[in-house]
Amino acid sequence: MEDLRSSRACCGLVPTAPTEDALRTIFVLSGRGDEVSTSALARHLGVAPPTVSAMLRRLAEHGLVERTDHRASLTPHGARHARHVVRRHRLLETFLVRVVGLAPHEVHDEADALEHAVSDRLLDRIDELLGSPTHDPHGDPIPRSGETHVEEWGTRLADAAIGGEFRVERVQDWDGAALAHLTDLGVVPGLTLVVLERGPFGGPLWVRFDGRDHALGEPLTRLVHGHDVRADVLA
Predict the structure, then answer these.
(1) What is the pLDDT of residues 126-165, one digit of tens each?
(2) Nearest to 62 by CA among 139, 3, 9
(3) pTM strictly above 0.85
(4) CATH code at 183?
(5) Does residue 166 fall inside a structural domain?
(6) Is 117 within 8 Å of 109 (Cβ atoms)?
(7) Which residues contact 26 (CB under 8 A, 6 or more apart)?
(8) Closest Cα partner for 188 from 110, 120, 136?
(9) Does residue 147 lie within any of the structural domains?
(10) Domain membership of residue 47 as a residue range
């Protein structure tokens, strides 16, 4: 994949860690269908809204984002830059789990720090060492050079059909504590569980896997994505 960090020739932007984080965050939020507003970006990036506004203005000036009504979206050129950052991030997360031995909930911040410094030459060697993985430890697809990248998040477990089977494909990794809890329970990509019932008055979602029933609150079920396998399995 072409190293777009040397981007003065294509759009005049001198990439920095904050701008790359912003592009990756817009890419992920929009891919999930979440709101990509100034306030949402500020919350995810851990900076003040005026800082985000200034950053978005700079990205817009270089043709990487479009802004309407305090919301941002990537241009096709901005999406190319964002995919490059996402590739680095997800490959590094995979390396940190498979080779270094970190737990899946420990690698997001580490990869965030490393992704801005790793060269494409080293990244290609990491990719080769890992056998060109297609997904990272959280189930996120890894963009590849010359291939169409599909950033599908599927159905949230929170919206899964009651009485059916649900296959977990991706688990959001931005909340390390929540991810650690889900991993400890066994809610990881590849798991198929049965959706039993929703508790009344905003109660938990009851699911069954590995012969046990588990109650998951809505904040957790909104982090888990996948698809319904078979409806009415309990009928």
Answers:
(1) 999 999 999 999 999 999 876 678 788 999 999 999 999 9
(2) 9
(3) yes
(4) 2.30.30.90
(5) yes
(6) no
(7) 36, 41, 65, 72, 73, 74, 78, 82
(8) 136
(9) no
(10) 17-79
